[in-house]
């Protein structure tokens, strides 16, 4: 049975947590639930869309979605392993915000232990179930290490055109000068509109989009070198690509490739 078909049952159950462990391509349309969701990506990459943002969850990171937040979830590669937990909602401050965090060794071990349960409800009183609630309690240890690999969206007609142009040409050495010429705007007007609608600068958006695309290429193009991936995402220098990647992900592209493929 598909997960979306039993969300109401999950929400209505008096039991403490529902677990799902799976590995395959999957697309969940926009939905919401009354429980807090923890999804850990063990291998591959997952993508989540909320109201006005598109986020990437790389391997060895977990996604926290508070109860009541509408979202779409995409697992776009058969190698992606996704472990999801649906907890009764908590009033703790950390758990109120959606976020993506790197998983430390303790969290990974607790998640691996939980694979004894899958597609089933678990109560705190059941044998070994305290492991799940230890996991729930230690998540807050990662709160200060949230990664910001997310892209805002806008329904502004001009910005929609700009974003489409970026998505089609990110592999070229795009410049602010080229963008202003392309859309017949002064540099000041372009930057002001971009920042007003998306709350980040053009350069920030372009760098983030390129890193997202590079993660996908690192996973799918296993025979391509890191330098080829850099060139394919608009970087003329391997060093520049590696440095920006480290800035966003806290690891080098070669390290990321090892954990997502």
Automatic annotation (TrEMBL):
Keywords per UniProt: DNA-binding, Transcription, Transcription regulation
**Species this chain originates from:** Epilithonimonas ginsengisoli
For this UniProt entry, which segments traverse the membrane?
A: none
InterPro entries listed in its UniProt record: AraC-bd, Homeodomain-like_sf, HTH_AraC, RmlC-like_jellyroll, RmlC_Cupin_sf
Q: Which Pfam family name is an example for this entry?
A: AraC_binding
Q: What is this protein's record name?
A: AraC family transcriptional regulator
Q: Which residues form the HTH araC/xylS-type domain?
A: 160-259
Classification lineage: Bacteria, Pseudomonadati, Bacteroidota, Flavobacteriia, Flavobacteriales
